[in-house]
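QUALITY CONTROL LOG
STEP: pairwise intake check
CHECKER ROLE: data steward
CRITERIA: each record must contain a sequence immediately followed by its C-alpha cells, with no blank fields

ENTRY 1 OF 2
RESULT FIELD BELOW
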Amino acid sequence: MNITEAQREKLRTMPARLKTVLTGQDMAIDLVAERLQHGELGLATPGRPKASFLFLGPTGVGKTELTLRFTEDLLGPGRVVRLDMSEYQTADRLALLLGSSESEPGRIAEGFDACAGRGTLLFDEIEKAHPRVLDVLLQLLDAARLTAGRNRVLDFSEWYVVLTSNIGGQRIMTLRKSKYETMERLVRQDAQRELRPEIFARITVTVVFNKLDYEAQCEIADGMVAKECAALSTRGFAVSPDRSVSDVVIQRGYHERLGARPMRDATELLVRNALAQELLRGGGGGGRLRSHRDGMKLQLEPSLA
C-alpha cells in the first residue's frame, strides 16, 4: 500500500492526539488506535469493514465521543452515521433502517451517500436493537455488504463499524479498586451473556471503558470551560475564565454515575447564564468570567475600556 511520510506520521501520532481530547481512557484509545492503524495501512481482513469495535462501559465515559474523534481525525468532519438502537426495537422499524421504496432509501443508505462511501457506522446502545436488526448487522460485519432499499448493495469495506453498549456499566461502578484487567474480564463476561455470540465472533476488538474518577472529571471540566469560551469567542464574545470557574462547574456538574454528560450541561448553562445577564444589563458581552459570591453560579466582569 502506498502511503506518504505525512500520512505515516499522522497515523503514528494519532493515539497522542486522541488522548488530548478524551480524558481518562488511555487504555481504550491504545486498543482502538492499533486497529485503526491496521485499517489505514491496508492490513485489515479483506472482505470485511476496516475494523469493528464493541465499546462497553457506563454512560458518559466517552464511547461515542471517541468514535466521533477518531473518525474526524482520520477522515474529516461529518463522517459518522449514528444510529440510536432505541429507535429500532421493533421489527417494523427495519424498513426505516434499510428503506422500503424508491422514495425511502433508508437511514443507512442516506448516511452512506452523505459520507461519500467512507466513514464510520455507529450503532448506539446495541443491546436495545430488535433481533432482525442484529441480523442485518451480522451481515454487515461478515461481508462488509448490505442490501438496502431498491435492492441496492452497499459496500462497507472502506468503513469502520462501532457498537456501543452500557452492559457492564453497573459492574464497573462497583469495582472501584479492582485492576483494569479484572474489571475488563468481568464486563466481557456480562456482555457475552447478554449479546448474541455471533456478534463477538465477528467483532475485531471489544474495548471496555473505565469509569471517570473525580480527578478525570476535574480535567474534563477545565477542557469544557475552555471549549465553551472559545466557541463564544467565534461569535464575538471575548470571555476569559479564571480558575474559580472550573470549581463551580465541578460543584454543579460532577456525577459519579453519569460521567461527563452532566458536566457538559453544567458548563453550557453556567457560562451562558453569566453572559446573558451581562448582555441584559447592557454590557458588550466581553470580560473576565469568575465565580459568583454565592458560590453556585458564575458572573462576567466586563472589560475596562
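ENTRY 2 OF 2
RESULT FIELD BELOW
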Amino acid sequence: MAGSGICYHPHVTEAPVPKAMKQAGPNQLAIDWSDGHSSVYDVRALRLNCPCAQCVDEMSGKKTLNEASVPADVKPVVINPVGRYAIHIEWSDGHRTGIYTYAHLRGLG
C-alpha cells in the first residue's frame, strides 16, 4: 500500500499466543497455543524460572533467586494478561513482580 505508512510482509508469521490457560492438576498449568501446541508446566518450575529483576540479574542474566527460598507447594494465586505479549503471575509465596512473556513461556514448555 503505497503511501500508507503500513508495511505488509506476507511471509512473516505471528508468534503463537495462548488460546486457553487452565489448571491441569494440583501443581500444573496447561496452555493451549494458537498454533495447536499444548504445554503443561510444573508451577514451581515456573516460579523458579521467573524472569524479573528480583530473580535474575538484569546486567548478566544470571539467576539470583535462591531456589531453597521457594516453597515446594508454591502456586499461582492470580494470573492476568499483560497486553498481547505476556502474563503476570502473583504467587502464593508473596512474589508479585514476574512478567512471563509468551516467548519465555514457550521456551520453557
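INTAKE CHECK: passed for both entries
DESCRIPTIVE NOTE, ENTRY 2: The chain has two helices and six strands.
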